[in-house]
Amino acid sequence: MKKLISLLIGCSLALAGAALAQQPVEQQSPSKNKRAPEKTHATEAQPKPNAAKPEAPAAKQHGAMKEHPATNEPGATKERGATHERGATNEPGAGKGRKTPANQEAATAPKPNVSGQPMGAQTPGAKQQAEQQTKGMKGHAAGKAAATPAAPPAAAGKAPSGPAAGQQNAQANAGARAKKPDPQQVQQIKSQHANFRAQPKPQQVPAVTYNQNYRIQGSEQWQGPQYEVFRSYHPERHDEGWYRSRYNRVELIGGGYYYWNNGYWYPAWGYNPSAEYYAYDGPIYVGQHAEPPDRVIADVQGVLQQMGYYKGEVDGLLGPLTREALAAYQADQGLTTTAVIDEPTLNSLGMS
Predict the structure, then answer these.
(1) Cβ–Cβ contacts within 10 Å for residue 123, how many?
(2) Which of 69, 147, 227, 245 is deepest in the core (most CB within 10 A)?
(3) Contact by Cβ (8 Å): 313, 270
(4) Contact (CB, 8 A) for 270 and 212
(5) Which pLDDT score is estimated for 267?
(6) What is the pLDDT of residue 179?
(7) What is residue 186's predicted lDDT score, i.e. its pLDDT?
(8) Spatial contact of 212 and 234, defined as CB atoms under 8 Å apart
(9) pLDDT for 183-225, tens place per residue?
(10) By three-state DSSP, how is residue 166 classified?
(11) Are 86 and 68 within 8 A, CB to CB?
(12) Is the Cβ–Cβ distance between 337 and 220 less than 8 Å?
């Protein structure tokens, strides 16, 4: 009898345990699960018979029905409200009257991805695909930016280079060349000096003295064969016989003797010690016609005077004022600034 009673009690306890096991989680531990009010709110959210049909749930509007179809079934909140967080938030009014956990709030506020779809409604595979698309778009934009050449910074404050600088130099040179003498005026001036003879003027143009160590200053920087006679020149003192034995022409010009050699007149130091007045110690270029140096100097002075370079008197002496005028003209014409009458300068003046 006792065994029968014990068997019946054991069966009753087993049936009671099975019944308890089949009940929802909310009914088993209402004290531990704080979502018990969700059932009440879900029940209150059910539409009344005469009420207007509610709008489609939020999850249905965003395409979540394909992702979680079970959450939109009638009564799904009652059975799965405690186990499916997204299902609980997809029903109308599910979030009213309770505090949504932080992870559920993130789920209920989905962020749009690059395609415009909410991230919360994507499956893990769809989310990974969206991230790949985002990376692809960023890579495409970066490649496009790299392929586009950056505009060079403005070179503010710097001098123009290239074609602009070349054009400015050409304009400057053209302006200088515009100051070339008129050929008709040159011929007129030369005709006026056909019988010109220079006279010594030691008071106005002091004479230079003999110095065997004298070299023309700066001539070592004058490049080209047309300046070789200036680079190699140094005064020599010899008697009359020495000059006569070597040069065909030795003449008294403007108070001193000069000898002619291959287009240039040179001071003949020592030829006659009583006639050694030289305003300039060095070669004077006159060309192959061997015109007297004082006449050529007077022609140059007259032309430079007409052009506004020379302010002195036409005296046929290569003094300081004449040399200053020559240097200014040579600089404007882009010639080597020798401040003497050389071949390039005489050619530029149209007197060669």
Answers:
(1) 11
(2) 227
(3) no
(4) no
(5) 98
(6) 73
(7) 93
(8) yes
(9) 999 999 999 999 999 999 999 999 999 999 999 999 999 999 9
(10) helix
(11) yes
(12) no
CA distance 81 to 87: 6
Q: What is the pTM of this model?
A: 0.52
Closest CA to 349 of 289, 295, 299, 287: 299
Residue type, 201: K
Task: Look up residue 325 and give its two tokens.
Answer: 């005028």
Q: Tell me which residues of the chain have a pLDDT lower than 50.
A: 24-123, 126, 139-163, 165-166, 169-178
- Amino acid in the structure at residue 165: A
**The predicted structure's pLDDT at residue 180:** 83
Query: What residues contact 162, with CB distance under 8 A and at least 6 apart?
Result: none
User: 36: which 2 tokens?
Assistant: 């018990």
Q: How far is CA 325 from CA 227, 308, 340, in A?
A: 19, 9, 10
Please tell me the distance from the alpha carbon of residue 297 to that of residue 323, in angstroms, as a whole number: 10
Q: Measured between alpha carbons, how far is 315 from 319 in angstroms, rounded to an integer?
A: 9
Burial group, residue 70, by CB count within 10 angstroms (0-12, 13-18, 19+): exposed
Joined tokens for residue 56: 């489609």
How far apart CA 94 and CA 203 sit, in angstroms, is 122
The alpha carbon of 204 is separated from its chain's Cα centroid by a whole number of angstroms, namely 57
Q: How far apart are CA 320 and CA 206, in angstroms?
A: 9
Phi, psi of 79 (to 5 degrees): -90, -35
Q: How far apart are the first and last CA of the chain?
A: 158
Determine the angle formed by the axes of helices 183-192 and 293-307, rounding to 10 degrees.
140
For residue 59, give the nearest of 46, 72, 70, 47 by alpha carbon: 72
* Contacting residues for 63 by C-beta, under 8 A, at least 6 apart: 117, 121
Beta bridge partners of 264: 261, 285
d(CA 339, CA 165): 29
10 Å Cβ neighbour count for 93?
13
- Residues 327-330: contacts with CB under 8 Å, at least 24 apart: 329/179, 329/304
